[in-house]
Amino acid sequence: MDKILSYIDSNIGSFTEQLKDFLRIPSISTNPDNRGDVRKCAQYVEERMKEVGLENVMIFDTPLHPIVFGEWLHAGGDKPTILIYGHYDVQPVDPIDLWTDPPFEPVIKDGKIFARGAVDDKGQVFLQLKSIEAHMKNNGALPVNVKFIVEGEEEIGSVNLEKFIIDHKDLLKCDYVVVSDTSMFGKGIPSICYGLRGLAYMQINVTGPNRDLHSGSYGGGVDNPINALAHIISKLKDDKGKILIDGFYDDVIDMTSEERDEYSKLPFDEIKYKEGLDIDEVFGEEGYSTLERVSARPTLDCNGIWGGFSGEGAKTVLPSKAGAKVSMRLVPNQHPEKIEKLFEKYVMKIAPKSVKVEVKSLHGGMGALTPLDSPAMKAAVSAMEMAYGARPLFTREGGSIPVVNVFQTILNAPTILLGFGLPDENPHSPDEHFDLENFHKGIKTCAHYLNELSKINMKNNGKN
Ligand code: BES
Ligand code: MN
Ligand code: MN
What we know:
CATH topology of the largest domain: Aminopeptidase
Structural class: alpha+beta
CATH superfamily of the largest domain: Zn peptidases
Largest sheet: 6 strands, mixed
Shape: globular
Bound molecules: ligand BES, manganese (II) ion
Helix content: 25-40%
Mean pLDDT: 97
CATH architecture of the largest domain: 3-Layer(aba) Sandwich
Number of strands: 18
């Protein structure tokens, strides 16, 4: 390992320069205008995969954005086969005015690299690639069998990936899945994530009169779709943060008391948390801590709302239409299709009869819990400890990577979420960045990880 680690140390400067090229490609998956850039980005990943020595590197077209695949399978049948997953697509950049530097012109400041996709997820895909390079360049081989899949639709709900996985079960067959697309607990506090939330994303459209009206002539006699929408939204949750949709909590698995005990020991500083956000009070479901609320409890949030006049000055209008986007983060075992139906039924029940209400479901995905006792998890703990000099904590995160559940059910392979982001690196927001020390230590962790995984003997059912 010494040679490999010093290779990483002496090349970290050029790795960072190469990462900048990756970050310069505006691979915004949701924007039709960027479709060509997304493809260019797939080709960039394809070239890097070939360069580090992966074989059978291929781009698979889908109805929308391409999937890139590569593998190296010469470690032998008694060694585990891992499937590394990541995404090369990124979120839109708006509000663009709030970026200090242009989002696709990466800059380094205070040991951090700033650009859209820096931490979510290009920086983390790249560190996985470089850990492979470090092994290949120094040993001409990898300690375990590796398959690598990088998709371009994660930020729009991995719309074509599930079918791809079902259609390519043999190609993707593996013992474990490894994903670097989550965060650590804090700077210098390594952690491994063992749970992600699911998602059900909805839209409510409210229509009142057939055209905008003079609010003086009609106001008071005709219902206003914005008022009606506000009425609906106000009844989705009570004032203690509990969701009021009938049956919403039916499938929720509560945290065990041991799990809550472990959670309460995590070094979370609520005062700093509030200061960092400029808020006076936290808010959430009664009876749960902030950490539990943001990761292990389901929740509901309005993501956007529109209707009527919001320009400068005053316009006395009774609008014809209003709408809102509402998303629910689900916990493992809550099924998005079921929650979507419960949501629609409840909204229809509380909707005023004086307006027309339409509920649409946009996309969803299951949450996931990953086993803590698999040999691959133990190997991850050792690898992180070697790179960071501290034993990682175990945490759950509130974000969603729906494909993790798909890997677990279709490929029957447990996932290890080996993420290197920090909680305040602004993914999806202006000034997204990635700490370069974690980029460096992330490459080392993954290099150690390949080595630690090779100690698992698959002839023995993975029991060492
Ligand atoms: N990397 C994130 C998921 C994530 C966020 C994990 C925070 C842990 C902490 C991923 O790219 C993402 O943004 N997922 C979407 C999923 C959606 C588009 C289906 C999300 O969580 O909103
Ligand atoms: Mn991501
Ligand atoms: Mn994301």
